[in-house]
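Task: fold both queries, return tokens.
Query 1:
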Amino acid sequence: MSEVRWIKLATDIFNNRKIKQILKMPEGDAIVVIWMELLCLAGTINEDGFMVLTRDLPYTDETLATEFGRPLQIIRMALSTFCALRMLELHDNIYHVTNWEKYQNCDGLQKIKAQDRIRQAKFREKKRLMLESGQNNVIVTLPVTLHNATEEDIKNKKKKKNTYGEFQNVRLSDDEREKVTDSEIESLSYYIKSKGDKYKDHYATILNWRRKNGTSEPKPMKSLNDQYSNSEGIYT
């Protein structure tokens, strides 16, 4: 969680009726300071005003006494006062600052939460890329879903087609490119450019031309006029 540097307080807070009543009580000064400490702690926690150490571990009077370095008796008196004045509420044994959304800097706190989510997402993506490239020296046991996703990404990468030829109009995957010659690519590139034909599968078209040449082995194409006078391609 990113550190929260400030929360919003009204400049006339000491004119507030509840604060004035607290100041007249025994230990009133200490209780008001504890209120300020609670507000700052709630901002630092950044859980919409809920006083929790973690999502599953709420603050108690004892843990707050330790947090603020104050006697337990004073903390209990302060919490009782805040609840009686409805400055604090108890929800499932979790203290919550009443009207937190109305009086505190919620926009700023929500922005920090959003930044944390983005930062965590970028970290997870960087970790995934490191695992794929084999740059991670840490042994990690991957969930089945992540492992399958990685295999699928690799398959998709192999199927991705790049453009080749003089006119960059011949589309082949990495595997297909290794199985054809430069001459075959250039012949197809010039033919598509000159004739304007659009083949559905360029690799299959080259294989079809080889079949017409009477061999399954790659070999340089004949002249364009001879080679394509009666050519058959696979069209869209």
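Query 1 returned. Query 2:
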Amino acid sequence: MDLGAEVSRRTMLKGSAATAAALALPINRLLGYSAVAKGTEGGTVTLGVDDDAAGVAGVAKALIPFTKKTGIKVNVFSEAGASDTWVSVFQTISTRLAAGEPLDTAIIATEGMLLFENKGVLEPLDSYIAADKAVVQNFYNDINPQLLARYRALDAPHGHTYFMPLGYNVMGIWFNRELFKQLNIAEPAPDWTWDDFESIAAKIADPPNRYGYSIYTPPSPFTDVYPWVLTAGGEIMNPAQTKCVANNPGAIQAAEFVVGLIKKQLVNAPGGSYNPFTEAPGGKLGMLGAGIWPNISFGLPQKTINSQFAIVPWPQMPKPATPVGLGGLGIFKSSKNKAATWELIKYTMSEEFQADYQVAVAGGMPMRQSIARSKEFLSQYPPGTENFSNELTYSTMIVGVPNGSAVENEIGVAWEQILTGATSPAAGLEAMETTCNQLMAQQV
């Protein structure tokens, strides 16, 4: 993946999994993976992951403990498409299914779950959940209750459950503690505001040599649009995620704020190939927005990342807010290894997987809060990592909508047109709303 060329929402659940072995934590859990059901021993499960060849190798290596426990081999392949977007990922999976190629399960983000559920290509998980009720309930009991309720309400249509959540990401601000110290800037508090953020960015910025904050190129809805809009009290979609309502005062205020940062040269100009993951470690960038994935994307030793960076929640205006996205695993109807595939899904719910491999394999935070909030886990990552759990109580889930791939693309394109000055915030958001609603009405 070329982070310099494009960083999209799919990066959140990706991260270069080739580093899985290096990031795996040596934590012994009391509740590990239980023995497999009789009759599912052995066999092969084909798993699609959103990564390149090196990442595929990393995922395969991380799942060796599962194979040792069960005898079930995992054939990992790349579901990454020609471009670095969820659109290309979903196209790759759909093409593979249509061609009748082996595919038992794949890591799919919330943006694409509804797409595959409505295509009728997924096996309902109800009977598997019922057979392993105690295991699944133990997992559910360990998930943030607000997050679990929203997930089950929005991603379990037709009265069935089709996916088990694998990991999540919210948005926070990573800041370079070493640079802050050099410039004599106080580190931000968790309840900081937009004004605080702009003031700090202004103290850091020395364009074009150094910027206070970075926008992604091109901007994506999850990383660049939703955090600002939600904290301003605005919306892109209505609460039921059935209609685009982007033309509202909060969204306009958010767009105007980011445009102001660009005009003041506090951030990099939109377009081009600016790469925050190389600029920030070199002291040329003070802050960037992200979930937990920079631990992988920086490409630095974890000890170096932990000493150089820290994390705070997104700045408030007028309230705290963040998008949250999940990745999950389901079982495709075409699978000839459904029982073995369920065993793999069950393994990803275990404390063993969640503690040792979740960040490295899926690029997301562990669903299990007993792990995500534990001293053992947090001690492995930068100060402030606990904020990714704290933010869940006020998060807004970003899920798939009808024709979701095209809608996601339109949100990013329309936002970039606003940032480049091709259109005003009000006009750009009005056009976004109109086009997205037209796309959502199309049959795909």
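Both queries returned. Flag for query 2: DSSP finds 23 helices and 13 strands in the chain.
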